Amino acid sequence: MSGLLASVATLDEMDLVRAGGADIVDLKNPAQGALGAWESSALEAAVRRWRTWPAPKPTLSATIGDHPMAPETVRAAAERVAATGVPLVKLGLFEGDVSGCLAALRPLAATTQLIAVFFADRAPDFALLPEVAAAGFRGAMLDTADKAAGGLRTHLDEPDLRRFVSRARSLGLLTGLAGSLKREDVAPLAAIGPDYLGFRGALCEGGRTGRLDPASMISIRQALAESRQAA
């Protein structure tokens, strides 16, 4: 059954999505790109707050920012986020030396749970999944880079999405689907069986850079519950 990843832009939004039943609270700055990053001081404050939450509590993840695939740059950005204590660190596989970046991140993957993000609107190469797994990554997600160019299902059809989830899972990777998802995407995507579905814009008033709306959070959570009952 698919869990709910909710991307948040502020500390207050962390509390809202926790109250709304998020399974992963994802720290992301939507004003800075597809995987915009929080500043280190804000990440440290978020980790402190997360640690005070009583169990059971959601997992915490954070993005490293939108970086071209230059090994030293990507490794430094991932190490910066990991140093704050965030348990799941997400990084996008953008254009550049992807293989070199994966190799450079292998030592960090031994101590930090890294998530590789493929982009459905950038001709994702699923043949890289074994390389991601071999580098010690914890998981792989599909997302979209250009949030104005349509949601995930605009760019990849159901067979492609199933192939991604199936291949990633066969390699022992945690799986996630995201990318301008709406409530009506929940049932068909949950039926594919990813570990998580990720949301930001559908949880906000006025799109992904707007204010998080608790009622929208409840609506998405309800849609996920309905998909579980149907399954």
Care to describe what's here?
With 231 residues, the chain is of the alpha/beta class. Helix 3 runs parallel beside helix 4. It has one domain: Copper homeostasis (CutC) domain (TIM Barrel, Alpha-Beta Barrel), CATH 3.20.20. The chain is globular. It has helices at residues 11-19, 40-52, 71-83, 98-109, 129-134, 152-155, 158-170, 186-190, 214-230, and strands at 3-8, 24-27, 59-63, 88-92, 113-119, 139-143, 174-177, 196-199, 204-205, 211-212. It has an eight-stranded parallel beta barrel, surrounded by five helices. It has a two-stranded antiparallel ribbon with strand order 9-10.
In short:
The protein is an alpha/beta fold.
Q: What structural keywords apply?
A:
231 residues, alpha/beta, TIM Barrel, eight-stranded parallel beta barrel, two-stranded antiparallel ribbon
How confident overall, as mean pLDDT?
Answer: 96
- Distance from N terminus to C terminus (CA atoms, Å) equals 8 Å
What string, H for helix and E for strand, traces the elements in order?
A: EHEHEHEHEHEHHEHEEEH
Count of extended strands: 10
What is the 3D form?
globular
User: What integer value in Å does the Rg equal?
Assistant: 16 Å
CATH topology: TIM Barrel
The computed structural class is: alpha/beta
CATH architectural group: Alpha-Beta Barrel
Mind telling me the CATH class? Alpha Beta
Poorly predicted regions: none
Tally of helical segments: 9
Helicity range of the residues? Answer: 25-40%
- In the sheet with the most strands, the strands line up as 1-2-3-4-5-6-7-8
Write the CATH homologous superfamily: Copper homeostasis (CutC) domain
